[in-house]
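Why does this matter for the project? Reviewers at the last site visit asked to see concrete outputs rather than summary tables. In response, this paragraph embeds two records directly. Each consists of the residue sequence and, immediately after it, the corresponding structure tokens. Nothing has been edited or filtered.
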Amino acid sequence: MAHTLPITAEPPTVQVGVNDTGIGPGGPPQGGGRDGGGGSGRAPGAVPQRAYFTGLTMGLAAILMFFMALVSAFIVRKGLSNDWRAFALPPILYLNTLILLVSSATIQMARGKLAREDLSGFRRWWAVTGVLGLLFVGGQLVAWRQLVHEGVYLATNPSSSFFYVLTAAHGVHLLGGIIVLAVIGLKNWKKARMTRSTATEMATIYWHFMDVLWIFLFLLLKLGQ
């Protein structure tokens, strides 16, 4: 009777290679995201989107603190002095306020066109916003000329001094916004680290901030007369 030897089969072994980074052969998970979302798929050196908005928030906070310091000085100077002399605000300031309100509507329309990927519509309304901003600044210069024609100068009275300082400070900041609008409208975004949508969002926030700030300053100047 023949004897047969039992055959034993060893279970196959699976070897998982580990590279020098400690990550398996599949490599790290690929992350996506726009402009700096939290994944590793963004371009090297790209700035996360939240960093842009954090910087914008800090910048707006600094601007707000600057103007609140001026407003506090305005209120204290008016309340503690007997030499405050009121003067009539130039009527063109009402038109300037309306222009700035309309510009907030047009920049929102441009933002909406970009969200729908209508670039021609975006550029059109974006340009209209810039033109309205320039009209506002030009209107402020006209207001200054009207005051000068009436003999109201920077050093005429504390009330006129604050008027020139507050309107000039706001005008300079709005001019900065107009420059940003021009850069966004003319920039080639194919090689930019920031996307056009992120830049548009940030510029829109800044523009609305300047709009609300002007309304507050205008009411302050009007009630302070």
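We now turn to the second protein, recorded in exactly the same manner.
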Amino acid sequence: MILDKFRIDGQIAVVTGGTKGIGRAVSLALAEAGAHIAVVSRSPHKEMEDAVVALGRRYFHHAADLTKREQTKRVIPAVAEEMGDVNILVNNAGIIRRASAAEYSESDWDATLEIDLTASFILSQAAGRLMLAKGKGKIINIASILAFQGGLNVTAYATAKHGIVGLTKALANDWAGKGVNVNGIAPGFFATELTEPLQQDPERSKSITGRTPAGQWGDPEDLGGVALFLASPASDFVHGVILPVDGGWMAW
């Protein structure tokens, strides 16, 4: 049955930034399809734990600040020790610091690049080593439509997301023949905490929905099925793809 290709029963999925927004939606979608969930965030989240456990899955929270490299390096070993393995990695955690390019601070640049790009490399490398040893695994990098555009007042974020595309393709070239799939998702404008300033700006919000063929902000749940596809056997011959989920933004 083709639907069996979308089952990930018993798999261990690590989702960074997995307690809210896009990360939460992806975590719950993977749990519904059979995966046990390890969430990486700065603070525990009881509601998230309860939701995963209610689905009959194991749940583990690992506290880490991914702007701090030494904490990032401890994530995959900690999850593997607690959960027994790492089969799926979703690099979702990210921040946005907004300012004009002329006024953009080095500290904001460094923090954004560290969590939005470097952490994805460190986590992918560590998880990839485990996956390569087994000849099987799935890595999903959350990019953005700003991986293809420059955006407004988000210099470091756009730069990091362009880097995520390059990282995804480079890892796919290296690991595709060794059983590890590395792909990415490029969300458009979604109604999350990260985009709250834009949602609260009537003029900016109207310009975004007006520019989006679907005519609305995305709902994080719209990404669940896409993430499941890339995490499941249904995508075993898909490598190095950056899949826009943007209400038609890139088709405009």
